[in-house]
Amino acid sequence: MGESRQELLGWLNNLLQLNVTKVEQCGTGAALCQIYDSIYQDLPMSRVKFNVNTEYAYLQNFKILQNCFAKHQIERLVPVESLIKCKMQDNLEFLQWTKRFWDQYYPGGEYDAVARRKGAGAPAAAAPASAPTTSARTSGAGAARRGTTPTAAPTRSTAGVRTGGVASAALTQELNAMKDTVAGLERERDFYFSKLRDIEMLLQQACEADPELEKDEDSLIKQVQAILYSTEEGFEIPADDGVVDDQETF
């Protein structure tokens, strides 16, 4: 039988100097990337995003993890679609397997987790948290389910809206319309991204079933992969420049 949730969380936090409170938070992919970095120390930790709470961002982390598995020939399928839902059972099973793998292959010695993820947007180290406010506790449950550590949102003054009369009302209406537009675009983006992800997973499964498929550079699989992984100027995933997002994951 594998370790319990509390044992795994204790090991994870001690190794990575984080403050993960739920196994489900591993569904962001960030902590998992760093566990394998502690073994191989060659993952691009500056590209691993800790301060995110969308499935699109989680997928970017898991792409880094999958590249690590491919590079080091780890014969284990990463169940990305299940993990990014941040459900306890799926993440617990994968974390238990990861712990067994780590026990077998960790090279020993000290691992400076804080230095390795410097600039990746993660907290410097685990620290005791102060007592949460009522508003933070109220909003915390939803955030924890999404794999993020709840933080109190900054308050904004509404004096301008109250005193601005008709002009302020018009600005508020325009702002709400823009928010609706952005929300619609995000839903559309996520919909098409999930379709592309499904295609990518099918290709990976086909290549795992028959490795010879990847050797033919003119095959349909290679052509589809070339389309999936092609980039255009201005659309590459940028290297992390040290800018820290407002939200915190751990």
Descriptive report:
The chain has 250 residues and is mostly helical. The chain is built from ten helices and no strands. Helix 2 (30-40) packs parallel to helix 3 (55-71) and helix 2 runs parallel beside helix 5 (88-105). It is globular. The chain starts with a helix and ends in a 21-residue tail after the last helix.
Q: Summarize the main sheet.
A: none
Q: Give the helix level as a range of percent.
A: 55-70%
Order of helices and strands: HHHHHHHHHH
- Low-pLDDT regions: 127-146, 148-162, 241-250
Relative strand content = under 5%
Instruction: Kindly name the structural category.
Output: mainly alpha
Number of strands: 0
- Average the pLDDT over all residues and give the rounded result: 78
The shape, in one word, is globular
Task: Report the end-to-end length measured between terminal Cα atoms.
Answer: 27 Å
**What is the count of helical runs?**
10
Rg for CA atoms: 21 Å
